User: Fold this.
Amino acid sequence: MAAVERLSRGLLTLRLAFSKPDKLLLMYGHPDFDLFEAIYTTRAMRRLKPDPLPRDTVMKIIEAATMAPSNSNRQPWIFVVVSAAETRHFVGQRYKQAWEEHYFAANKRRFLETHPDTPEAKNLRSAIYLANHIGEAPVLIFACVKRYRDESRAGQPMVGSLYPAVQNLCLAARAHGLGTAITGLHKHFEDELNRRLKVPPEYANEILVPLGYPMGHWGRPARKPAREVTFIEQWGIRE
Ligand SMILES: Cc1cc2nc3c(=O)[nH]c(=O)nc-3n(C[C@H](O)[C@H](O)[C@H](O)COP(=O)(O)O)c2cc1C
Assistant:
């Protein structure tokens, strides 16, 4: 027995000696998860279970978001985490209203009827589901960002410094087995929402990410081939 133990300890020492040092940090307190699996299977997960989420997990996911780059490392983001049922219910109602008033127009309804089996229709049905159920996600994260104050851009939100963080958030959530979707429809009721969440006017409430355990399955999203969206050396030249 002692010999087996010695052997396995020896093997462990060998493994540690040859591991890269960053691997020994246990992924900074996150589950070990393959980077490319996360990148290739993080899609808009709009069907979410209502099961509550541990606050620690949500905070770790936000920590991963804050590792993102930002212009001059300003880190101009604030993430407002909402799990109170009353606030989620309010968001759910307003989001559905915004969807119907501003997005789900007659042409889209017609498209669904005439092209029900297309990928676009599938995506639309998923977005309809979200519009009807977003308030049931256990956690809604509002990614807010500072507005510029210099003369030429005064009032504009620093969105370029927010999206990398939000994508990090989605990938980290994936590693924890949680689904996300990037949404923007809350902009239609932003003033009312910001009053409720007490977001000050120096910040824009830019992105809403519902977070929860997925009802559906992870899978590779449909994307154009890299070759189709790449030019070599000059615009228009493909390999
Ligand atoms: C800037 C931005 C705004 C979006 N707004 C919404 C939205 O309001 N509602 C929604 O259901 N999905 C929204 N999405 C999600 C996209 O529809 C989704 O990423 C896209 O269709 C690809 O989906 P897939 O990853 O499942 O293939 C948004 C995505 C981005 C990047």
